[in-house]
Predict the structure.
Amino acid sequence: DAGVTQSPTHLIKTRGQHVTLRCSPISGHKSVSWYQQVLGQGPQFIFQYYEKEERGRGNFPDRFSARQFPNYSSELNVNALLLGDSALYLCASSRGLNQDYEQYFGPGTRLTVT
Amino acid sequence: AQTVTQSQPEMSVQEAETVTLSCTYDTSESDYYLFWYKQPPSRQMILVIRQEAYKQQNATENRFSVNFQKAAKSFSLKISDSQLGDAAMYFCAYRPYSGGGADGLTFGKGTHLIIQP
């Protein structure tokens, strides 16, 4: 089975622009979470979606938004990009919200804001 | 808020030797999960081992084992018979057991593990 896939692999944007990152979960997984990993730090939780609804949110500004589609894939949107948004964005999928379910991570999208 | 602290930015070990990575955490919850993730240069985060707080027995997965001290809020990872493929960033992570609620993982800053051939 294919793992979690993310696109694009790398992205370069200019301050003030908008970006959309995409994630496809493992087949059968209904929950998707997004994390931001700044260079030299551990990942930070941004959102969790389950059955197309936001079920958890980390401490990120409203410039960050996400959605989940009927096929359980997800998009992360970031508006008005700042230099500090440069990071590796990781997507993780799991079968559901049950805390026993393991989260499987994708390879990430490297976003550089100039 | 929960915090996870990894006090060793970098560790080095000879191939075939044993190394222990440290992790402490702070929480007011009584039920939670703890994890060790490995992130090689390929960037893909891989689960190494997990521990449920209600279980007294320390988790083991082949060459990987943990020393879970709930009272001390300590969760160290021991890697036995280190192999070159173990070289990576290792992250300790915490997640509360919220009875079905959605909570993300809280990660430490990571420990860079170097394996000397």
